[in-house]
Amino acid sequence: LSLSVCISSRELFSPSQKYQLLVYHADSLFHDKEYRNAVSKYTMALQQKKALSKTSKVRPSTGNAASTPQSQCLPSEIEVKYKMAECYTMLKQDKDAIAILDGIPSRQRTPKINMMLANLYKKAGQERSSVTSYKEVLRQCPLALDAILGLLSLSVKGAEVASMTINIIQSIPNLDWLSVWIKAYAFVHTGDNTRAINTICSLEKKSLLRDNVDLLGSLADLYFRAGDNKNSILKFEQAQMLDPYLIKGMDVYGYLLAREGRLEDVENLGCRLFNISDQHAEPWVVSGCHSFYSKRYSRALYLGAKAIQLNSNSVQALLLKGAALRNMGRVQEAIIHFREAIRLAPCRLDCYEGLIECYLASNSIREAMVMANNVYKTLGANAQTLTLLATVCLEDPVTQEKAKTLLDKALTQRPDYIKAVVKKAELLSREQKYEDGIALLRNALANQSDCVLHRILGDFLVAVNEYQEAMDQYSIALSLDPNDQKSLEGLQKMEKEESPTDATQEEDVDDMEGSGEEGDLEGSDSEAAQWADQEQWFGMQ
C-alpha cells in the first residue's frame, strides 16, 4: 500500500524511504517463500539504491529527509544481495547465487557471505575457491565449526586447519578440547573410522563434553560406517534419550532398525519425527525405509524423492531412492543416484555397495570389479572393503579362490563381521562343505544374534539332515524378523516333511500362490502405483 502511495505521490516519501519500502516488501515475500517475486523486488531496491547514490554524489546534503539520521540506517546493499542469493539457492539457481555474491568486493564480504560462497563453490565442484572462502571465514571467525568441517571435507590437512584456530584456543580457558575435536573429524573425513571413534570416545569421556548429543550422533554414524550396527543403534538411542526432539541422524537410525526387521519401531519413529518437523528429509527417509522393507517400492521411491526435494544433499535419501529404483528394475536410474551419493559421501562404503549391486544386477561384472578395486585402494584393506571385493569375485568362477582368500583376511580382522560371514557361508555352500559352514556360523552367533545368520545355519543343518535344530534356527530367525520370507519358507518346508499327511493341502496352497494369488501379497506395490505416475515431480531425474 505504501509503495503504491509512493509511486502516486513522490513528494510523500524520500528516495531513501522508497528504497526501505522496497526492501521491506521483498523481505516479506521472502518469508512467505515467494522467492521469484522477492528477487524481483530486491532488484528494484538495488536499482533505487544506485539512483540514490548518484543523487547524493551530485547534490550534497541540504538537511532534508535524505540526509536525516534515518538515511544513515538504510538496509545494507550487501545484506540485500545476500538475501537475493538466498532466494536463488531456494530456487536451485546456484549459478545466479554465486554471481550475485561474487559481485561483492572481497573486503566487504561478511563471514556469512563467505560461508555461503564456500558452500556454493563446493557444491559446484570449485574446490579451490571453496577452500579460499572457508579459510576467509576462519580468519574472521576462528571458532566457526562448519567452516572447519568444510575444509576437512575438501581434504585440507587437519594440522593446517588446527593451526588456524591455535591462537584462539590458547587465549580462551577450557577450550583445549577443540584441537582434539578437529583431529577426530580429520579422521572422519579421511575414512579412518577406527581412529575417529577412539578420538571421539576420548572426547565424550571428558566431563566438559559428557552426554553431548552431537558427539553421540557422530559416534553412532561412525559405528554405522564401520559396520558395527549394534553399537550404532545403542548410541542413537542414547542420543534420543538425551534429546527427544533430535532429527539429525535419525534417517540412518531408521534404516538400521528397518534392516533388523523392527518395522513397528520404524513406523513409530517416522510418526514421531513428522510431529517434530516435516520440513526435514529425515522423517521422509524413515517412512521410506519402512515402505522399502515392506516391499512397497513405488511408495519408497516417492518418499525418497520427497526427501531429496527437501534436502538435495541427503545421502540416505539418495540411497533409499536408488535402492527402490534398482528393485523396480530401473537400474540405470539407480546408478545415477548412487553416483551422486558417492560424490557427497566418498568415505561411506554403503554408497559404493549400492552402485556395485547395480552393476552386478545388470551383469556388468567388469565395472563392478573396477569399482570394488578402487574402493579397496581408496578406503584401505579393512574387513568391509575386503568383503566387498570378495562379493564381486564370487560372481566370476575364475576368481573364486581369490574371494576365499579375501574373506579369510576379512574374518581374521573381524570374526564377527556379518557380511563376511554370510559370503564365506555362501562359498562353503557352493563347495558343499556344510560342516565347515555350520562351525563358522555357530562361532559367529556365539556373541551376537542375527536373522540372516540363523536362517543360513538352518539351511546348512537341513543339508546334513539335522531337521529339528534347523526348525529351531528358522524359528529364531523369524522371532528376530517376522517378515523374513526365506526363513518362513524354510520352516514351512520342514513342517511339510514332519507332516506328510498334510503335504497335499500345502501343495494346493502353493499352487494358489503361484497362480496369481501372490498379487494380494504384493498388493502394497500396486496400491502405491499412483506414486509412480508422479515420477516427473521427483527430486532427481
UniProtKB/TrEMBL annotation:
The keyword Transmembrane helix does not apply. This is APC7 protein. InterPro entries: TPR-like_helical_dom_sf, TPR_rpt. SMART domains: TPR. Residues 504-525 have a biased composition (Acidic residues). GO terms for cellular component: anaphase-promoting complex. One of its GO terms (biological process) is positive regulation of mitotic metaphase/anaphase transition. Residues 489-541 are annotated as: Disordered. Residues 489-499 have a biased composition (Basic and acidic residues). The keyword Iron does not apply.
